[in-house]
Amino acid sequence: MFGRQNQFNGLQCVLVDELNDAIEASVLEADYEIVAPKIKFGCIYEITRLHSRSSKQTYKVVPHTVQLYFNGKTTFKQIPERPPHIPEHRFYLVDCSELLSRVDKVEILTGYWIAKLQDVMGHITSVQPLEDRMVNKERLETKCDVHLQNTSSSLSCKMEEAPLT
């Protein structure tokens, strides 16, 4: 994860359980060197000695109300056998045809007022250069246009998305 001025800012994870529920977990930059070697993508762990708090609404990647925080004292005990009922990935897919009608709603795309992110499957056909734009006639933000072509039809959508800064 990168923070302001593209500086490294820790680690973000999405954890999924056997009920297909997802929760976001974070490791702060100060704890990254200690925590990162303890975990591997796709493995299943019993995790203890962690903290939780209410999820921030900005850039929320899963609908869970709580976010987990791991630090140097967090323990990860790997469970050797992977139960078949725990999915490896979790997505919140939205059909491309629904995008334009949902652009102004709080739950779509990344940005300052986001309550929930959703995923779209398609081909990125072009990415325009970054430019400063006025948002809600209140604040100036750096944005770029991303053109996404729906893979299931010839429909083409235009999305505006603020980069992580």
TrEMBL record:
InterPro entries: NA-bd_OB-fold
Protein name, entry field: Uncharacterized protein
UniProt xrefs under PANTHER family: OS03G0429900 PROTEIN
Species classification: Eukaryota, Viridiplantae, Streptophyta, Embryophyta, Tracheophyta
Matches recorded under Gene3D superfamilies: Nucleic acid-binding proteins
Species this protein is from: Malus domestica (Apple)
